[in-house]
Amino acid sequence: MHALIPEIIDTDWVAQDCPAIIRAPMATWLANQISDETRRAYRTDVEQFLKRFRSAHPADITVEMVIAWRDELRAAGRKPTTIARKLSSLSGFLEWLCRERLIVENPVERVAFPKVSSEGQRRPLSRSEARTLIDTPDAETVEGPLHVAVLATLLHTGCRRAEIARLKIGDLGEERGQRTLRVFGKRAKIRVIVLHPKAWRAIETYLKAGCREHETPDAPLFTSLRWRGTNKGRPLSVSQIYRIVRGSAEAAELGRRSPHDARATACTAALDAGAQPERIADHFGWSGLAMVMRYRGFANRVDDSIACTINY
Fold first, then answer.
1. What are the φ/ψ torsions at residue 139 (nearest 5 degrees)?
2. Nearest Cα to 61, choosing from 27, 106, 120, 96?
3. Percentages helix, strand, coil for the chain, rounded to the nearest 5?
4. What is the pTM of this model?
C-alpha cells in the first residue's frame, strides 16, 4: 500500500458489517491524488457520506440517498460551493468504484448540483485595500511580522495558500539580480517566480524577527508560533493561513476575505498593469488561458461599465 495511506485514511468509522471491499479501493483512489490537501479533503467528504449511511454497501447507494445528503447539507446552512465540492468528491470515489467494477453506476451523476456563481468566488481588492490589508497587522507584536509576510507574499505573488504552506527557506533564491521564489504547485508542477521587493522585505523582516535567517534550506519558510519547544519549526497550515487573511481583513473592516481573494487581487492587478495573459498564466501556475480570461472579463465589466452613461 502507498506509504502515505496509513496517515491519510482512518477506517475506524467503518461499521463491522461494512464489507472490507471498500477499504482498498478508497486507499488506492486517495493515493492517486497528487496533493496531500486533496487527499484529506476527499477523504473527509466521502467519510461524511458513508457515516451518514453506515450500513449501506457501495452497490446499494442510491440517488435518493445522495439527494437526502445534499438536502441535509443545505438545511444545515452549508454554502452551495461546499455542497458542490462534497458531491464532486463522492462522485469521484464512486466513479473510481465503477472503473474497478465494484459497482455498476455512479448515482451522483443523476443528482442536481447546487448552482454556484463563479463571480461570487472572485472578489479582488482594490490597490488601496490591498495596501491596507498588508499594513493591518501590528509589526510590534510577536505574530505581526509573520502575518505581514504571509499577506505580502499572497498579494504580491498570487500563490495558493497550499503553495504558501509548502514553501521552504531554500525556495528563496536570486536570479539575474532579482529575488525569486520556487513554488510547488498543483499536479507537482514547479515554477520559479520573481518576488516583489515589498514581499521580499516583509519576508526578510519576519525571518530576522524570529532569528531564522540562518536556518537550513529544508526548514519551512513560514512556521506556526503556536508550536514551540519540541514542536518548534512546524510549518504554517493552510487553515492558519486562512485565519491570518480573514482576521486581518476583519480588523481592517474589509469584510470577510480569504486567500483566494488575494489571488484574485494579484491577477486583476497584473491585468490592469497590461501584463500578457500567457505570462500571467505561467506565473499563476495555470495550464491554459481560461482562468486569465475569466478575470479579464470581470475587470473589463467594471472598468468599461456603462453605468455612468445613464444619467437623468
1. -65, -15
2. 106
3. 60, 5, 35
4. 0.69
The C-alpha cell of 182 is what?
520556487
CA dist 163 to 73, 99, 108, 140, 149, Å? 29, 31, 31, 27, 14
C-alpha to C-alpha distance for 258 and 126, rounded to whole angstroms: 15
Q: Tens of pLDDT along 144-165?
A: 999 999 999 999 999 999 999 9
Q: Do domains 5-116 and 122-307 have the same CATH topology?
A: no
Q: Can you give the pLDDT at residue 173?
A: 93
Query: Which stretches of the chain drop beneath a pLDDT of 50?
Result: 1-18, 120, 306
Superfamily of domain 122-307: Intergrase catalytic core (1.10.443.10)
Three cell numbers written together for 107? 448515482
Give residue 19's pLDDT: 52
Angstrom CA distances, 72 to 29, 68, 137, 157, 303, stand at 26, 6, 39, 39, 41
* One-letter identity of residue 111: V
Q: In the beta sheet, which residues pair with residue 256? A: none
CATH class of this structure's domain 5-116: mainly alpha
Rounded to whole angstroms, the Cα distance separating 23 from 11 reads 8
